[in-house]
Structure formats: C-alpha cells, structure tokens
Design brief:
This protein has 193 residues and is an alpha+beta fold. Helix content is 23%, strand content 32%. The protein has one domain (13-182): Aminopeptidase (3-Layer(aba) Sandwich), CATH 3.40.630. Strands 1-2-3-4-5-6-8-7 form an 8-stranded mixed beta sheet, with helices on both faces.
C-alpha cells in the first residue's frame, strides 16, 4: 500500500488496498450521488434526511467544504473500477486542541458489508494523524447503527460514551454513541496510526 500522494488537480489522494480517498469535486454531484442522499435506507442515520437533496444543494455543500479551512471532504472511490462509493469528512478541525470529528457515508449499497467503511476510516485516521498532525479523532453514531459502530471499532476506535436519547430515529428516541481514537493508540487490526 502506498502513502498519501498528490495527484494532478487533487489536494489529497490516500491509497488503500481496495479504495482511495480524494477530494470531492463538483463533478461528483451526479444523479447517483443525489439519489444516495434521498434513499431512506442510505440516509436513515444522516441528518440530511430531513430535507430533499437536490444537485444544487449538493453543489453548494461541495463548494462550502472546498473552501472550509477547518475540514477535509473526501470521496471514497473503489480502485478496481473508479466507482464513487461514498464520502468522508474530517472536521471541524480544532487547531488548538488538534482534534476533529470524522463522519462518513457509504452511499453505494452494493459496497455495504464489504469492509469499505472500515478501510476508509483506517485511511482517514492515518491521514489525520500523519498529515494533519491531529492527536485525537471522534465520531458519533446512532446506537442502532451497528454497522457503523462495528466499522469504527474494527478500525481501532473505542467507545467513549453514550448520550442518552440523543436522536429521534423512526419516531423513537435512541442513544448516541461517541467513539474515539487517540494518536499512537494501537489499532485493533495491528499497528498504530
């Protein structure tokens, strides 16, 4: 596996065995991307589900992230066929405490259950620690989003806390789960990020 490298027209490109992460661009705002965000199975745990997503809304978000000094917004792309599978965001980056939150969505349901989320989290974690010089990352999941929690835990993250009845999901109050990873903490799948 190669390290982070810069590609023409791309600020970041982080290579993994099956995927790579690159900046999300306006060209990514396809009908397919819009359809992910409006699919009730995909958006069940996303805050974007409360409004219909349009191409213009997606373009506005991509533009805002591209100009944000405290965030990195990356596309998750399958190496074998260059298919855009989802997105990952590191931010808001706190330069004083050297922390950030990591969030992701795998929009392409054909990639669900294949470990793509775990690989993306591992790559982003390594990038955040080695290239952004962060010392800690956090993530928050709905307690019923077991696939997301498992993906973070497989990537070496640990559960740090519970927020009781933090979210409404399908009309029911559910807990939020905080996960974290500290720089230098041994990863569960070997090594340290």
């Amino acid at each position: 596996m190669s390290d982070t490298r810069v590609a023409p027209g791309q600020q970041h490109l982080i290579d993994g065995p099956r995927i790579y992460l690159r900046e999300v661009t306006r060209a990514d705002a396809t009908d397919r991307y819009r359809d992910w965000l409006n699919d009730p199975q995909v958006n069940r745990f996303l805050e974007t589900r409360f409004e219909t997503q349009t191409r213009d809304r997606i373009l506005d978000y991509i533009d805002a992230q591209a100009s944000a000094p405290d965030a990195v917004f990356l596309a998750i792309v399958r190496r074998s066929d260059e298919q855009h599978l989802g997105n990952l965001r590191i931010g808001t980056i706190d330069p004083v405490h050297r922390t950030a939150t990591l969030a992701l969505v795998i929009g392409d349901k054909s990639a669900w259950g294949a470990g793509i989320g775990t690989e993306a989290i591992e790559l982003a974690t390594r990038y955040a620690f080695e290239h952004l010089d962060l010392r800690k990352l956090t993530a928050r999941c709905y307690a019923v989003n077991l696939a997301s929690i498992r993906a973070f835990e497989k990537a070496g993250w640990t559960r740090e806390g519970i927020q009781r009845e933090q979210f409404l999901c399908d009309g029911v109050a559910i807990d939020g789960v905080w996960l974290g990873r500290v720089r230098g903490q041994a990863a569960s799948r070997g090594g340290a990020a």
